[in-house]
Amino acid sequence: MSEEQENHTFETSMRQLEEIVQRLEKGDVPLEEAMELFQEGMKLSKDCHERLTKVEKQMTDVLSEDGSLSTLPEEEL
Amino acid sequence: MSSYLSVADVTTRIKRLLETSGMVQNVWIQAEISNFKRHSRGHMYFSLKDDRSRIQSVMFAGSNKNLTFTPEDGMSVLVRGDVTVYEPFGQYQLMVKEMQPDGTGNLFAAYEQLKKKLTAAGYFAQDKKKAIPRLPKHIAVITSPTGAAVRDMITTLRRRYPLVKVTLLPVLVQGPDAAPSIARAIRQADETGWFDTIIAGRGGGSIEDLWAFNEEETVLAAASCRTPVISAVGHETDTTLFDFAADLRAPTPTAAAELAVPDITEMREFVHDRRGRIHRAAAERFERAQDALKRLEQSYAFRYPKRLIEEKEQQLDWMTDRLKQRLQESGSRKREQERSLTNRLHAAHPKKQLERNREQLQERKHQLERAVRKLHQEKASRLELQLSKLDLLSPVQLMRKGYALPYAEDGKLVRSREDAPEKSMLKLRVSDGLLACRVESNTPIQKEDPPHE
């Protein structure tokens, strides 16, 4: 659940990052807001970057017909 | 001469006409093989014919190496290919890319029939297509657990986007049980609600091999799936009804994995790029603000008040000087005024008043004293006068004048004849002593003869 939330935040962060870049690049942002946006953007980019860098190796699950889960043996890949 | 075309020109034009029209490109043809010849270098040359016509055909080694059967004269086949022109002979021919024995002719009919039906039912409608999530968290891969396709998909997903969780739903992808297996897995994946995206497919194969993806059951499962579905069936040239029903068609399983997830390297670059852009944009914004400030500072509006201030400064100096002068001038006057006022103040001081009052009081006291003294003197002199008057009247004085006081023997003052009968002794008081006397006679005094006063 928390992982799902984290990933959700990640996507949101990416979107927010893009929005901030676009707003800043439009250049019509008041200076105080621009400073806030800049700090926010830096925080978001750091956050996103860390998430993208710190990747855990994901195991591939196998969902069988009866609904049971098992891990796919690596040698099969 | 230039109005004449060369033979080669005409052939080239015909070739271009044929190859760009699209009418005879990538077409499926049902025909019978004749004059089959296999060249030592691997290419196959033959004619395709039906009861009305024939066409020269060639199948190059690169295409025919996958054939699972050996073509022979009289064989009924289904072929896919492009009509081209062999320029040296000015001959058109069919370049065959794929060939299948024509047991499957009925499959194509079924395909077309189902396609028409499902299109009419709206299963392929573009507006029903769901967007594929850009950053999926969990992907379902529905395919055979063995073979290249599953390996290609999983490794591609992991390589491109290690953040995504992959769950494999193993299914049969070939044979009569494949369609129910695939349809069931799609529904199962959809019902769990775990997945952002479902990739379903298999590697390349013959039309029979891929047939499960042309069956109504599979197509309906994809069309009614709430989770976005990416189809990953066969090769680029294979088109199944499942592809039409899916939300996105990938040409191959590997391509499906690429379409399903972003490339993490690209994402890092994205973040890096946005970081740089934020830096630049912010720097630009601050620079702009700084420039604006500088411009404002240098503007007339800013410099004018500065000069104005300088002027006022000067004016202030001048006025201060004048003020000082005036102050000095008026200083003495003021001091005089002040002194006089001080004097007046001092004069008006209560002490003065008090002194004055005291003086007045003293004065009054003196006046009073004088008045009293005067009164006293007056009274004294009057008293003296009275006293002297009194003195004049005192018996002693009277006695000095000749009067005497007669006292009877009983000591009473003799005031009338009755008090001193004849022959009684009297004591006569004179101014300086007592005289004892005897009354010789006692007669009343005549009126005509009053005693001397």
Automatic annotation (TrEMBL), chain A:
Cell compartment(s), UniProt: Cytoplasm
Keyword entries, A-Z: Cytoplasm, Exonuclease, Hydrolase, Nuclease
InterPro entries: Exonuc_VII_S (IPR003761), Exonuc_VII_ssu_sf (IPR037004)
Task of the protein: Bidirectionally degrades single-stranded DNA into large acid-insoluble oligonucleotides, which are then degraded further into small acid-soluble oligonucleotides.
NCBIfam families for the chain: PRK00977.1-2, xseB
Family: Belongs to the XseB family.
Protein name: Exodeoxyribonuclease 7 small subunit
Source species: Alkalicoccus urumqiensis
Originating gene: xseB
UniProtKB/TrEMBL annotation, chain B:
GO terms, biological process: DNA catabolic process
Main location: cytoplasm
Entry's EC annotation: 3.1.11.6
Region Disordered: start-end pairs: 327-361
Exonuclease VII large subunit C-terminal domain ranges (all copies): 123-437
GO molecular function: exodeoxyribonuclease VII activity; nucleic acid binding
Catalytic activity: Exonucleolytic cleavage in either 5'- to 3'- or 3'- to 5'-direction to yield nucleoside 5'-phosphates
Domain OB-fold nucleic acid binding: 5-100
Coiled-coil residue spans: none
Keywords: Cytoplasm, Exonuclease, Hydrolase, Nuclease
Single GO cellular component term: cytoplasm
Location of the protein in the cell: Cytoplasm
Compositionally biased region (Basic and acidic residues): 327-341, 352-361
Superkingdom as given in the UniProt entry: Bacteria
InterPro entries (UniProt xref): Exonuc_VII_L, Exonuc_VII_lsu_C, OB-fold_nuc-bd_dom
Protein task: Bidirectionally degrades single-stranded DNA into large acid-insoluble oligonucleotides, which are then degraded further into small acid-soluble oligonucleotides.
Record HAMAP family: Exonuc_7_L
Family of this protein: Belongs to the XseA family.
Subunit details: Heterooligomer composed of large and small subunits.
Protein name in UniProt: Exodeoxyribonuclease 7 large subunit
Lineage, uppermost ranks: Bacteria, Bacillati, Bacillota, Bacilli, Bacillales
